[in-house]
Amino acid sequence: MQQNNKTKDPIIEKLNGIAVALSLLIISTFLYMYPEYLGFNILSNSIGTFLGIIGLVGFILEIGKFDEDFSEGFKYLGVGIFLTLISIACIYFLQYLFVKIIILFLSLLSIYSLLLGLFYIVYIVLTKKDKKQSIKGVLATTLNFLIFVLTVLQLLEILNIEF
Prior knowledge:
The chain is about 85% helix and about 0% strand. Helix 3 runs parallel beside helix 5. The relative contact order is 0.12. By secondary structure, the protein is mostly helical. It has one domain. It has five helices and no strands.
């Protein structure tokens, strides 16, 4: 028996991770657009939301792997988005005073993490000498932000929260 000692190409692994994350987001969008698909709206919305959260966090983490400078900022953004989604869900489902106080602190942490990640990425983009890398970083950041906004809007509509 011969052992295969090939090392995997890191770019291929990153692209694989992005493909998985985007697949989860596409399935989440499909379930959002066709809530009757699984027979029960609540089941489709719940599974779609779960897949969307995993896809969003996975996408942010995979994009952060492409440029080591940006990885720390994307990690902060991912944590902030995750905590924001948990806060939104808790605000909608749990109406107790004690829970609202805890959610207030959780929201503070999520906003802090989102802003820290955003500031970190902007700082890296502004201080880089390579313009091509800076443009790529700005585009990736913009894409991540738009995906975040769309996911939050999807969650708000699923939870019937009007603003």
